[in-house]
Amino acid sequence: MENKISRKQAESGNMLFLILIAVALFAALSYVVTYTTRSGSGDASSEKTKLIASEIFNHAISVQSAITRIYLGGCSLETLNFKSVVDGTLHENPDAPVNGHCDVFSNTGGGAVANEPDKNWTNQATYYYAGSAALTNVGTTCTEASCADLVMILRGITPELCTELNKRNGILTPIASLPTDTQEGCPYKGTFDCNGNNNVEVIFADPELRGHSSICYNDTVHGYTYTHALLER
Q: Which CA distances in Å does 107 have to 10, 43, 70, 111, 117?
């Protein structure tokens, strides 16, 4: 009897946690819509930058919502699958169910749309989903795979877009003064231990990067890079 009660309490706790995530995502989406609506001034280039930034934010939020939906449907992180028609097998999880139930970009799974980034604003052909790094002061920070955060990465974006994305997050650092870092990352395919040694890289140690779950910085290898935490661990 006690085990049944404990199980029910745990399930209730998980459900409450997921509901809170859903509320937070709805609030974030509302902010994006409001921000875009109020941005009625400025030249065409500036307005286009704001529009692209909104599209990126909307995509990140939709992917987060899809992950929550999949989890509620009984899928585990080990079966989470980011495979899409956009990037082929780059993110294909071999342990995902063949019926697509745990696929983020499937109507039978998360239902998110596999958007391609606008190539006028980035030199990257697709969004990159990784789970091989722990963001400093985001969730638990350590070098073990259990601390790795699940993130969406968009590399090689323009300075204007980088500035706008940061502005949305309340970061007003001039583009020339952005902190630098290097994020190797590897495609998430159901495991946070992509190198096989149970170790992950700890990134964003710079004081200006610490604690940010959504930020654009100057990657020393890939140029201006936007990172958005989809799941903090």
A: 29, 38, 11, 4, 21
Read off the amino acid at residue 38: R
How many domains in the chain?
A: 1
Residue 68 tokens, joined = 């929550």
Instruction: Render pLDDT for 30-61 as a digit per residue (tens, 0 to 9).
Output: 554 444 444 444 577 889 999 999 999 999 99
CB 110 within 8 A of CB 103: yes
Bridge partners (DSSP) of residue 231 are 150
As a whole number of angstroms, the distance between CA 78 and CA 18 comes to 18
Domain span at residue 29 reads 2-231
Q: Are the CB atoms for 86 and 114 separated by under 8 Å?
A: yes
Greatest pairwise CA separation for the chain in angstroms:
66
Q: How far apart are alpha carbons 17 and 191 in whole angstroms?
A: 22
Measured at the CA of 136, the angle between CA 161 and CA 57, to 5 degrees, comes to 30
